[in-house]
Design brief:
This protein is 16% helix and 42% strand. By secondary structure, it is α+β, with helices and mostly antiparallel strands. The chain has a single domain (45-292, 324-355, 402-485), classed as Porin (Beta Barrel). The chain has an 18-stranded antiparallel barrel. A hairpin with a 2-residue loop joins β8 and β9. α1 (8-29) packs across α5 (358-366), α1 crosses α7 and α4 (295-306) packs across α7. The longest helix has 22 residues, at 8-29. Residues 1-6 and 23-53 have low confidence and may be disordered.
Length: 486
């Protein structure tokens, strides 16, 4: 029984915690111990996806080597800590990146994008660590006739005009492999593509894109999924059949896209639009609507299935409305360009109807009181499992590339050739307008020469103990790096 002095909201939180603890207990009994990628390692107009072949009809190649270290500063006694021995204090990523655009025939091109990573931390002795290869893209493009194109293979299909969050970017979910940055533009470019067939046609009144992605496998442990360092992770990008139809056009300076997306027979409708006002200001918006559960329900029910238990009995204990119903995602924003300084600023408001409400956050934090009430050493491993399940709600939002909260403010400023032609600066901030907590990222790149780039990124998580960003287990991250282009 929960004591009467505890409020009903806290009782719901404790009930959720008990459910999570029960799931963790069953997971431990099943002998599973899968790690969760829990928390961060810390507008331009819509670009048409039409294939245009390699530049000048010639082959093009791009390669670079990059080494980046990450040092985390842990927050003292967070309410819901990460599982013990999970997050290293220091880690390193060494990456070989290659991109090739090859012209096979006058009307046939092949595109390949691959990232080979060596990942290590202060818990491993050099040169030990983990090798991870990400085949981001590998597809053929055929200019069938006229302004008609057919593509087939692994394609990173992007949609939307916003910068911080794209409600109409339907192939974004679970496609980010390594969070090399918290900048949404970087994550959008570096994610895994989806195996699909895509047809595109430029019409007199606009353009039409049709894409179909088959279900290949939703199982882990296969060569084509995640069995080895060189697996393709198709269980993340092709776990279910998906279809997209997009019509793009413009009218009197207003550019817009209309989209229809279907996933396992669940349709989602979306639209985006942008309009330039003068030479410096662009206003834009995105919207999508489709049936889904709340973010927390999707995350915990997904984990329940992973633990091998029946999820239905737990649905009533999830924070928020766990019913399957139509929900909206939307973005409204503007960009301002200072051409004289090569500086652009983007300001956006994000709305995610499936995201965590203030009441949901209250219940999430209340679940953390379980381990303070039942502070027994023998329960520590089980609370680690419970905390992992609670953090998986936020991890699910990251993997889906959507805000964890129902509302978010986003600001991004990019300044090329700042103070000197060799220095580029990028700053962004994500703000929870309800609890006033925020995440900030500042990144600088200095061009030592045409081939060598020095970089430094700083992350900050600020807010109270019971806030979205103030509850993150680290409050500061430092990431120095060097890149060699060749």
């Amino acid at each position: 029984m929960v004591p009467k002095r505890i409020s009903p909201a806290v009782q719901r939180g404790l009930t959720l915690g008990a459910v999570v603890l029960s799931l963790a207990w069953q997971n431990a009994a099943a002998g599973q111990d899968d790690d969760l990628d829990l928390i961060p390692e810390s507008v331009s107009a819509a670009q048409p996806a039409v294939s245009t072949g390699t530049a000048g009809g010639r082959n093009s190649y791009r390669f670079f080597l990059e080494d980046e270290m990450q040092v985390n500063s842990s927050r003292h006694s967070p309410l819901i800590p990460l599982p013990r021995n999970y997050a290293p204090g220091c880690s390193n990523r060494f990456t070989f990146y290659g991109k090739a655009d090859i012209r096979i025939l006058p009307s046939l091109n092949f595109t390949l994008v691959d990232r080979l990573n060596h990942l290590s931390s202060n818990r491993t002795d050099f040169p030990s660590g983990r090798v991870q290869n990400d085949l981001n893209e590998a597809f053929l493009s055929w200019n069938a006739f006229g302004e008609n194109y057919l593509d087939a293979g692994r394609i990173n299909l992007k949609s939307g005009v916003a910068i911080g969050f794209n409600p109409v970017d339907f192939f974004r979910k679970d496609a980010v492999s390594l969070r090399t940055s918290e900048d949404p533009l970087v994550l959008r470019e570096n994610r895994l593509g989806t195996v699909m067939a895509r047809a595109q046609s430029i019409l007199p009144f606009g353009s039409l894109t049709l894409a179909a992605a088959p279900r290949i496998s939703d199982r882990t442990g296969l060569v084509i999924t995640d069995k080895s360092s060189f697996a393709f992770s198709l269980n993340r990008t092709n776990a279910r059949p998906r279809y997209l139809a997009k019509f793009s056009s413009s009218y009197k300076g207003l550019s817009y896209d209309l989209l229809y997306y279907s996933e396992t027979a669940k349709p989602i409708f979306g639209a985006d639009l942008s309009r330039g006002i003068g030479e410096k200001l662009v206003v834009y918006a995105e919207w999508s609507r489709g049936k889904r559960r709340s973010l927390s329900a999707e995350a915990l029910l997904y984990d329940a299935r992973s633990f091998g238990v029946d999820a239905k009995p737990y649905a009533g204990y999830l924070p928020g409305d766990s019913s399957m119903r139509a929900r909206n995602e939307a973005v409204a924003g503007f960009s301002f360009t200072e051409s004289g300084h090569k500086r652009s600023t983007f300001v956006e408001y994000h709305y995610n109807e499936a995201g965590m409400t203030p009441s949901d956050w209250h219940n999430w934090f209340a679940s953390g009181y379980l381990q303070r009430i039942y502070n027994y050493p023998e329960l520590a491993p089980l609370f680690d499992k419970a905390n992992a399940a609670l953090w998986s709600i936020r991890d699910y939002a990251q993997r889906s590339m959507e805000p964890a909260s129902s509302q978010q403010l986003f600001i991004r400023n990019q300044w090329q050739e700042a103070f000197t032609k060799k220095l580029d600066l990028t700053n962004l901030v994500q703000i929870n307008p309800v609890d006033r907590s925020f995440f900030a990222q500042s990144a600088a790149k200095y061009n030592l020469s045409d081939n060598f780039i020095l970089s430094l990124a700083l992350y900050f998580y600020a807010g109270g103990e019971h806030s979205e960003y103030g509850s993150v287990n680290k409050w500061n991250v430092i990431k120095p790096g060097i890149t060699w282009l060749f």
